[in-house]
Each structure stands twice: as structure tokens, then as C-alpha cells.
Amino acid sequence: MNSNKKTTVTVVVIVVIIVIAAIVWFSRGASSPASPSSADTSNNASAPTSVANGAAPVAVSETTKVSGSSSEYQNAELGFSVNYPSTWEKEETNAGVNFIVPVDASQVSTVATLQANIQALSGTCAFPPVTTIQDRGTLTVGSNSLKMISMSNTVQGRGYFNRMYSLQKGDVCYMFSFASITLAASSKNLTGSNATQAQNNNKAIINTADSAFTAVVKSFAFVSTPAGTDETTASPKK
Length: 238
Prior knowledge:
- With 238 residues, the protein is an alpha+beta fold.
- The protein has one domain (3-50, 59-222): Protein Transport Mog1p, Chain A (3-Layer(aba) Sandwich), CATH 3.40.1000.10.
- The chain contains 2 helices and 12 strands, in the order αβββββββββββαβ.
- It has helices at 3-27, 192-218, and strands at 44-45, 61-65, 70-75, 80-85, 89-92, 96-100, 111-122, 135-141, 144-155, 158-169, 172-182, 221-222.
- The protein has a 7-stranded antiparallel beta sheet, with helices on both faces. Strands 1-2-3-4-12 form a 5-stranded antiparallel beta sheet.
- The longest helix is centred in the C-terminal third of the chain and has 27 residues, at 192-218.
- The radius of gyration is 21 Å and the shape is elongated.
- The protein starts with a helix and ends in a 16-residue tail after the last strand.
């Protein structure tokens, strides 16, 4: 590999790292209104935002069992809901929600990371400035049209795949992202037919998770945000 190719590979690695870091940074709520976390319990709402004049608590978010394999996550404060596989581990953030996708340990593979994120961010939607776009398109969800990009790179035996969707709603950008990382076969001492099997399983596992992620995006719906108290009619407590 000549120096130019090495430079290109280095740039790609840095870009991928920046993309993943940006996803994690935004998922921690760098520029979004705070939203209390809630436990992942069926038919249970999270902690209320406020109780005004003795009114019932307003639920910020809740997770409801939809079927034997699917759950619905709804966040009234951030204004959206999605259906997701119940096997995914949910973690709420100030900006939205993260999902850790489990990897089937019974299969020979080198998949290290499978993660999906949904964030509601203030401002105009913009994908990270990357140089290698594998695919670009749109996805229609109801009356909404989401923009999509995907990126795929292999560097020093490690495989990186990212897919991102964005949806602008007023001054809020809803960003959806899926990321996977696979390790080199040598990291698990896999050689020969075992290494080949791992590569095939990696593709199947990532494709399945990616398809499930797209199904989550397709289930996206807006929900009404909780109404606050009209301060012109509220009476101060004595």
C-alpha cells in the first residue's frame, strides 16, 4: 500500500471514529432539553415532570408491551414514539433513547457492537461530514420523508457499518443512527473455515439488526407533548 492509500485509510478511520463519537455525544444530550430516565417496565410510566395544582402527574415516557416480541417506547416530552424488539436493551438519555442490540452468542462471529440511537436535537438536520458514503436515499414514513445515508469500511481487519436517517420537524431534528463494529477473526483465534463462518455470520447478524433498525424507523410517529399550566389562570399557593 502506497503512502496515499495509507493516508486515505487513516482519514477513513478518523472519520468513522468521529461519526461514532458524535452519535454517542449527541445521545448524551449535548444540545437537547433534559428528559428524566425511566426503567424498562411494561405498562409503567416514568417519573412525572411536574404536578400542578394537585393534578395527576404527567408521564414523560413509557414503555408498553405490544406483542410477545415487540415493545413501544413513547416519549411525550420529546414528541415521538417507536416500536422496537423487546430483546433490545433500552437506555434513555436527555436527547432521546439508545438501544443495545444483543448478539447471538451461540453463533460463531466477531461482532463487537450493535447499537441504535434516536435523538431529538434542536436545530437543522445535518449528517456528519464524511468522505465515504456507501448509499444515499430517502425513506417514506407516513406523510414524512426521511433522508438516509450509509457508510461501510474495513480497516486493519475491523469492519464498520453505519446507517443514519434524519427528519426535520419545525426547529427540531430527529436523528436515527445504527452502528456496528466487527473485529478481525484473529482477535478470537479463528482461522480457516471457522474464520469464513464468522464472516458469513457477521453479515447475517448485521443485516438482521439493520433491517430491524429500519423497521423501528418506519414505526416512528409523533405524539403530543404534555400541556403545561396556563400561568394566566393559575393561582399562587398561599
